[in-house]
Amino acid sequence: MQKVADKLNISNAASAIKPFNLKNLVQLMEHTCQKLNALMDEKIYTIKAIAHDLKTPLTKAKLYMYNQIPEEHHGELTKYYNDMEYLLGQISTYTKKYYLNEKQQKIDLVDFSESVCHEYQLNGFNVSFSTNLKYAIIKTQHKALKRAMQNLIDNALKYAGNVMVEVQQENNQLHLLFIDKGPGVPKKHLTKLCDPFYRVDCARGHDLSGSGLGLAIVKEIVIHNKATLFIDNNPHSSGLIVKIIFRELK
């Protein structure tokens, strides 16, 4: 406890616990939680401010570079710019957390998931959909769930180049699965994948850019909608399996 107090700069509060009993320990824990929340709020505010301030110079740099480099290299420049825009967008989404304010509504998970996959298929991505259910009704945040699905599909395409999305039913639960055939993730890294700013590419052995926020956003959306998130390597072949479990509405 003293080590934690030292790191959070609350050593005085810790040493002031007299007598050292359960009631006073609870008070210290509450004080510690308040300190942690304040530090997290400050960190998020700083990151949001940096991301916002980067947008204008980034746009100016793009316009300048377009005028300075040969036209045949414009495509490559656009790709780099779009990557930066995506990263800043992920940071903005995570820090503003707009998806937590959306009202829940009933949706058909089968029709909804197939529609999301179809959007990727129209753009030539290797995304497939499978289910043996005619419908599966859940109550969730429509836009937030779509964002979570897009993050998971984008992640699979980035590291594996393919993903199978499935909707299954087990008793009164509905399972939304994302299965890829990529390299998977070393077991020791699995519990960290949803940590904010954790770089998945470091764990998956790829030199690919990423914000480290895609799965953190997914986790927040899943928890906020009272669903459950599981991530594990495929026990039957290579690749990763991400599963979101919902309670079915009768």
UniProtKB/TrEMBL annotation:
It catalyses: ATP + protein L-histidine = ADP + protein N-phospho-L-histidine. SMART domains: HATPase_c (SM00387). One of its GO terms (cellular component) is plasma membrane. GO terms for biological process: cellular response to phosphate starvation. It is an enzyme of class 2 (transferase). Its EC number is 2.7.13.3. GO terms for molecular function: phosphoprotein phosphatase activity; phosphorelay sensor kinase activity. Residues 49-250 form the Histidine kinase domain. CDD domains: HATPase. SUPFAM superfamilies: ATPase domain of HSP90 chaperone/DNA topoisomerase II/histidine kinase, Homodimeric domain of signal transducing histidine kinase. Keywords: Kinase, Phosphoprotein, Transferase, Two-component regulatory system. This is histidine kinase.
